[in-house]
Protein 1
Amino acid sequence: MITLYGLSVSLYVRKVRFVLELKNLDYQHIIALPSQSPEVLDKSPLGKIPYMTDGDFALSDSTVIVQYLDKKYPHQPILPQEPHSLAKALWFDEYSDTKVSEIISGIFFERFGAPRFLNREPDEAIIKSKEMQFPVIFNYLEEQIQGKKFLVNECLTLADISLASNFANFFNLGYTIDAEQWPHLAQYTDNLMNIDFIKKLIEAEKVEIEGF
Ligand SMILES: N[C@@H](CCC(=O)N[C@@H](CS)C(=O)NCC(=O)O)C(=O)O
């Protein structure tokens, strides 16, 4: 049995859940926070979420987990075999986990996390400075998408799954993408958010985080 630990609103946790859902794997999700407790460190040596167990095998880090899942459960693959395509898919996952996350999840953390976990109001100056960086990621992605439905090989890969996880937080925050300025990105993200398993999980999350 697969058990995934972490908060639903984490883009890294959501990335893993998207893959579990896409592959239609049986799993349980346990809500857990990052922690330096010995029990958590035992499964996640950096104390971060997500971490996962598959039977008695424990592993952490979203990118490690999804690569493991793709190897062990190869139906509905998310990673291409061909080396250039594989590198591209892993690159967009990295770009999403770092640059996109720093901006979008940075804002999400201020709005959602600061009041709940740091007992303070969101810092509007931090939010403003991150909003000003939207064009950096939008321009790059616009150029990469070029009217395609998916980023790599015209089929859904980890590249799109990782970005969908980040943009779910972006849309949940009430932002929209200016389709005049970034038509490809607006269309691309709209397509992603309407893929069945993505849409369903985002809806389910809303119920899970109610009252959090
Ligand atoms: N590279 C990791 C990043 C995971 C991560 O940073 N998770 C955050 C929550 S969204 C966390 O646990 N932060 C606590 C910490 O950094 O100690 C992954 O892909 O899973």
Protein 2
Amino acid sequence: MHAGPKKAVDPSPLSWNPRGCESERFAQFCRKFLRLPDGNPLVLRDWQRELVASVWDADPCPRLAAWALARGNAKSTLAAAMAVYVFMTGDHDTSVDVVAVDERQAGIVFDMCARFVERNPELSSRVQVFKDRLVIPSRGAELACLPASPAALEGRNPDLCICDEGGRIQPEVYEVVALASGKKPTSLVLLIGTPGPQPDNVLARFRQHAIDFPDDRSQVYREFSAAGYEDHGTDCEHCWRLANPALGDFLYADALAALQPPKMSVNHFRRARLVQWVTGSGEPVLPSGLWDGLSTGIGIPDGADVVLSFDGSYSGTDATVLLAATVSPTPHIDVVKIWQRPTYAETDWRVPILEVEQAIRDACLRWNVIEIAADPYRWQRSLAVLSAEGHPVVEFPQTVSRMSAATAEFLTACRNGQLSHSGHAVLREHMGNAVLSEDNRGGRLVKSSRSRHSGRIDAAVCAVMGYSRASWRATHPRKRFRAASFA
Ligand SMILES: Nc1ncnc2c1ncn2[C@@H]1O[C@H](COP(=O)(O)OP(=O)(O)O)[C@@H](O)[C@H]1O
Ligand SMILES: [Mg+2]
């Protein structure tokens, strides 16, 4: 494609007489003006029309919308077609942004837009093509494809902003985009994507909001997914059909068959091809039997030097865990106590905070507690009270960088037999529930999905924290006679 504004452009309006509601007009535009790479006109399928109608025909028109679709179901193609439609048919000064996760992806979607224009003489005669944007000078209209960086997006004010790969976009980027919207009487931010590898991705949050607030008309959420069928195999054709409306049409079943695990990880396939909201790789964190092999079946003798590790929850969806680890280069780990909501029905159950505080005091009497490592989140007051009583509380905020480093050390120690444990049943269960979620900052233990029913992992996270501090204390003993240095 030759970039550059040199050619003369036709200032006359497009000649066409669309009828019907916005989604019908869009479908007519696609059929009349847009051609796919194979030269065929873009004929929207009913499910594509309905998706578009959910947003453009809604009254009131939502400001925010998200669609979750499996890979290969024309997310990027539809995004490009919608972008070109608004760009070509909008009012004066129409601006359309397509935001992609990175430069490369932005280039792919921009190319789709530019080629839609290029393949049709009526469109191409009206449009100037630059390196990364299309312009209609007579109307002051612009279509830009941008990489998802806050700097690139700050201060923009598009009528339509489509974020491709909404499951992988950084939350800060989405916030910039969403906050910038609303400066025009109508505008739409549309996220399209598959579930992201991180549990807290933008698309997953959007979906959770739709589940929690089904009456919120300011946003629209649609998904084609096999969510709820995570117990079915990845080769289940019923699940394939649920999540892939294009299957048997322009998406081929043999392509899904060819991608079966172990060619890709189980959970990657589930996210990308079945739109199931699972995180991590789906592989166990440790090889089968390894954790059990580290069990001695014995607790920690009274009076031993230990680090207490505490991971507190509030409502009981997660467990509150108090765990002890011996101060040693090869720590021995035991669960002191666990509090968790007895059944899911009792939603008003609360953690007995005073009982938890007392359990920590009792543990300090039982062992020689060198340190109480705790994530202060929501437990600041209890930790302040214990600290004021003279207990050695050390805050261990569970930040991404800290937990990534501690998790790597913990898993290495397990594999090398450099830790042991008492064989506590709940810790065993939580180790089995945890999956490893990896990104460029390292790996962390996470639940296998955001669902309330996915098993708890808090004791495993607490063991990571306890191992980290206990092994560190073994090599960095506290100076016992600090007062002497003032003499
Ligand atoms: N009716 C149709 N609508 C959209 N895409 C179609 C249609 N028929 C065939 N295709 C093709 O399907 C493919 C969809 O790919 P793409 O948009 O990249 O999917 P995704 O972004 O969901 O992974 C494209 O190659 C496109 O040309
Ligand atoms: Mg795509």
Protein 3
Amino acid sequence: MDIKESYGDRINPVSINLETLQFLKEYIDNNEVASILEFGSGVSTEFWSEQLPQAHLISFENSRRYRKITASRISKQADNIHVRFGPLRLMKLFGRRYISYKIGSYLRKNAPKSFDLVLVDGPPGFLYSREATILQAIDHITEDTQIILDDAERDVEKSTIERWSMMFDMHELQYHKMGNKEIATFRISPKPKLAKMPESPNHKLGKTIRLLLTFHKQNVMHNLWLLKMRLLNKEPFPDQKMAEEEATE
Ligand SMILES: C[S@@+](CC[C@H](N)C(=O)[O-])C[C@H]1O[C@@H](n2cnc3c(N)ncnc32)[C@H](O)[C@@H]1O
């Protein structure tokens, strides 16, 4: 199966890239993957649904709109895939303030005891908040869970990895060049080594509140733009309209 042929025209500026999809394909062809936890839904979720239709997948998405679009695009063959809206909220994890998905009770009630693979591709990078994802999912991670972090070329994600490795023993850490981006792959022992995550200027209350306000402001601007397009009778997302129409047929 040619990944470029199947996914080339679906890739968009914020999605996972073709090189990474090729890497994931090789990984699932060579390893048993029956359960996946994903942060940040989109093309990657479509990929899992098509390549592993039998898998139990939970994908958390902070945007209601993109949750709906992605859910409408997943393969009909996959019936254990759950694309869940996880609104971004302020929360305290391991003694520090974070912005992250409000998902705790869903995970406790619905997640398998452990996931075979965790893909961290959200929340959006400017929120400096991917660190919280693994902290939230830690009860469903074992030494066998393969963790993959997208956008690992960014300084903030490099420091996230360093900080995770202060809290948990980290094994097999590797950075892989994927076109003009990088991913990091690793495993951790889920037993915390510290009572609290180390301090960081990115996880101070003031900064976290400012980032969350910026996020909400951007959402308001985005919704105003959508409203304007509607009033002008213009379709803002031509390709996604098609997907929504297909879903309601
Ligand atoms: C880094 S992306 C996650 C991408 C996802 N893993 C993928 O491969 O497409 C982060 C966010 O972009 C948003 N998003 C998803 N699909 C999108 C699209 N087609 N255009 C713009 N933003 C999108 C979602 O809110 C998603 O959580």
